[in-house]
TrEMBL record:
Alphabetized PROSITE patterns for the sequence: ARGE_DAPE_CPG2_2
Organism: Piloderma croceum (strain F 1598)
Family statement drawn from the similarity comment of this UniProt entry: Belongs to the peptidase M20A family.
Name of protein: Peptidase M20 dimerisation domain-containing protein
Binding positions for Mn(2+) 2 per the UniProt entry: 98, 133, 200
Any single biological process term in GO: proteolysis
Important for catalytic activity (site feature) positions: 233
Length: 482
């Protein structure tokens, strides 16, 4: 059963209205990692809740409790649970997405205000923070709901929704919510779910749609080094006291080599080498070094071998150094010795790695390396958040439906990929609901999620909405035959 032609026509005919809705969403700076923006994350939850309700979804906003951020005790933004349709003859698909975004400032190097959706008429790019990650995809689902309500068309499946506002900050509170709903059994919100679909990642390149069966996990650290009672004058105290920044830079330099090799003993070693057959999967993907260099904006790939680069993203761990809190970073030449600095790095994890088996290796290595510095400063190691990796069985009707939908909308066979990023809740859904989970991306490999000038191409938003809608029809068609 392919999607009805009038559904597809509705999407084409209402494209400008859908883009305006995306502009309204992008205008809310729902940055979960910034305490001063917490009100905006809540505003975004209410915006989305209102949209869902207006197209017939029964929703509830769930209070997830409190957490500490930047030394403040804050209420977590509510999660949105929704449902529409209870036909026992239909499959029930659970849709997950997130309405929070990464931080963005014009001064980071954006060409336009990150929270004003800018439409580049020449390229069709819809530029703004969250356009691709993940406001465009979640509004894709809203577009589908609007189309069905306006056309008086019955949805081909029952839908449940779980949208959160903390994904970019470790999905705090969400696992507990899912587990408590699952414990309720029959009356629980997720009761009766047959499969999960998440649209929150990207194609490998700019040409070929993808379906995704794996995500890396994550463990995120902050190394706090403190010593002097306050910031000091380097002319007065240089070569006089142990300097936190000097210790930190030394420690951070011992984490990873410039070629990506992780220097913490036992981390790289935990992952097996690929078989010839597995290597062939990467060799055969529609991807080349130019794709990564184009999306990175530089000719700096770690290897000229495509399979090596792809495996670096999909099936090996990686360690990235993100920044230093408390370090002098402004303009000018301030001659300061910072008193406290916090170095931030994270490790992307692949099976069998988990935060539980990796964190002790990280902590004992850093403590030993710090001891070698003979510094009188103090080191405190904080793990900010983490999540486990996930790999799914793609020989399942859920993936078959996504493949058929991709072929129907894009007239192309999708790349079958593993994503280098992380969505902590994915494994929780897979394990606690015991159902198949699929990632069906909307955006392209050069969207620049988390980066400056993040964009979603107009065609990806519109064709992507058709793709997500068609997928629901394909789920209904395949499972009615089974
Ligand atoms: C893949 C997804 N769209 C995403 O961007 N996930 C984030 C999750 C995260 C964890 N800490 C901060 N953000 C990612 O992979 O970085
Ligand atoms: Zn993200
Ligand atoms: Zn995301």
């Amino acid at each position: 059963m392919s999607a009805p032609a009038h559904f597809i026509d509705f999407i084409d005919n209402n494209a400008d209205k859908f883009i305006q809705r995306l502009a309204d969403a992008v205008a809310i700076p729902s940055i979960s990692g910034d305490a001063s923006r917490r009100g905006d994350v809540v505003k975004m939850a209410l915006f989305l809740d209102n949209q869902l309700k207006s197209y017939g979804v029964e929703t509830k906003l769930v209070d997830l409790g409190e957490h500490t951020l930047e030394g403040q005790q804050l209420k977590l933004p509510p999660a949105i649970l929704g449902k529409i349709g209870t036909d026992p003859k239909k499959k029930t698909v659970l849709i997950y997405g997130h309405f929070d975004v990464q931080p963005a400032e014009l001064s980071d190097g954006w060409d336009t205000d990150p929270f004003t959706l800018t439409i580049d008429k020449a390229t069709g790019r819809l530029i703004g923070r969250g356009s691709s990650d993940d406001k465009g995809p979640i509004l894709g689902w809203v577009n589908i709901l609007e189309a069905h309500k306006s056309l008086g068309l019955e949805l081909p499946v029952n839908l449940k929704f779980c949208f959160e506002g903390m994904e970019e900050s470790g999905s705090e509170g969400l696992d507990d919510l899912i587990e408590s709903e699952v414990k309720k059994g029959k009356g629980g919100w997720f009761d009766g779910v047959d499969c999960v679909c998440i649209s929150d990642n990207y194609w490998l390149n700019t040409r070929t749609p993808a379906i995704t069966y794996g995500l890396r996990g994550l463990t995120y650290f902050k190394l706090n080094i403190s010593g002097p009672g306050r910031d000091l004058h380097s002319g007065v105290f240089g070569r006089t006291v142990h300097e936190p920044m000097t210790d930190l830079v030394k420690l951070m330099s011992r984490l990873v080599d410039p070629d990506g090799k992780i220097l913490i003993p036992g981390v790289d070693e935990m992952v097996d080498a690929p078989s010839e057959a597995e290597r062939a999967i990467y060799d055969n993907l529609d991807y080349n070094i130019a794709d990564i260099e184009e999306s990175a904006g530089s000719a700096t790939a770690l290897s000229s071998d495509k399979a090596t680069v792809l495996m670096g993203r999909m099936r090996y761990p990686s360690l990235s150094i993100h920044g230093i809190e408390g370090a002098f970073h402004g303009v000018g030449a301030k001659t300061v010795i910072p008193a406290h600095v916090g170095g931030k790095f994270s490790i992307r994890l692949v099976p069998p790695q988990t935060p539980e088996n990796i964190n002790p290796l990280v902590v004992s290595y850093l403590e030993a390396e710090f001891a070698k510095l003979n510094s009188k400063n103090k080191l405190d190691i904080e793990c900010l958040h983490g999540g486990k990796p996930w790999v799914e069985n793609f020989n399942h009707w859920n993936y078959e439906a996504a493949k058929k939908a991709t072929e129907a909308v894009y007239k192309k066979t999708p790349d079958l990929t593993r994503e280098g990023g992380s969505i902590p809740v994915t494994l929780t859904f897979a394990e606690s609901l015991g159902v198949n989970v699929l990632l069906l991306p909307m955006g392209r490999g050069d969207d620049g999620a988390h980066s400056t000038n993040e964009k979603l191409d107009r065609s990806n938003f519109i064709e992507g909405t058709k793709l997500l809608g068609t997928y629901l029809y394909e789920v209904a068609a395949i499972t009615s035959k089974a």
